[in-house]
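Internal tracking record. Fields below are filled automatically when a chain is submitted to the structure queue. Please do not edit lines marked as system-generated. If the sequence contains nonstandard residues, flag them in the REMARKS field before resubmitting.
Queue: standard
Priority: normal
Entity type: single polypeptide chain
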Amino acid sequence: MCRWRLSPGASAVAHLPAAAAFFPCGGCCCLVVLLFWMSALALPCHEPGRHAPLPKATNASSSSSSSSSPAGAGRHVRSYNHLRGDVHWRKLYSFNKFFLRIEPSGKVSGTKSHDCPDSVMAITSVETGVVAVKSINTNYYLAMNKNGKVYGSRAFNNDCKLKERIEENGYNTYASYSWKHNGRQMFVALNGRGATKKGQKTRRKNTTAHFLPMAVEPQIDFFY
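SYSTEM-GENERATED OUTPUT FOLLOWS
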């Protein structure tokens, strides 16, 4: 194979072999053939699929993801919005047979009465695993301050955020979301007389802190 290169300012024709040696018709034919092959080599390659633009990927579903899309675009993100804002009417029945109530004075205690209106609670999910408990009749929120005192609060604040957890025995526990004592969680609990216990004296495994949420159908009055 003959290798050649152009020198600065030189002509390609001057370095070609004599046309008469190869073509009896003269150098014109040689030049035409050379130009044809040079133009053929200069044409861009159109190999199928090699340089053709790829079609854009489209999401057929909102839960699918594509590596060609920007970060986060088309990617399914787990959402817990369906857990927020749900309101349930419940009575919290303690393991030691008291209904938790918030009295009109804001005092939290237990009652044996099945018909006490102060024991009907609206339990609302405010975050994943965190609830607010409010007495329907007295409009007090169940709350615990940093000293472990359980009380009724007129306004919703950080004391009113309670971590709800289902225990192994099927009962629920309600621990302060905002406060701990020496690194330990503090729980809403009723003693054997129906009085609240200080949060520092409670433990998750103590049945005094265990409550069974009992469903209550909202009573709607119709006026004609």
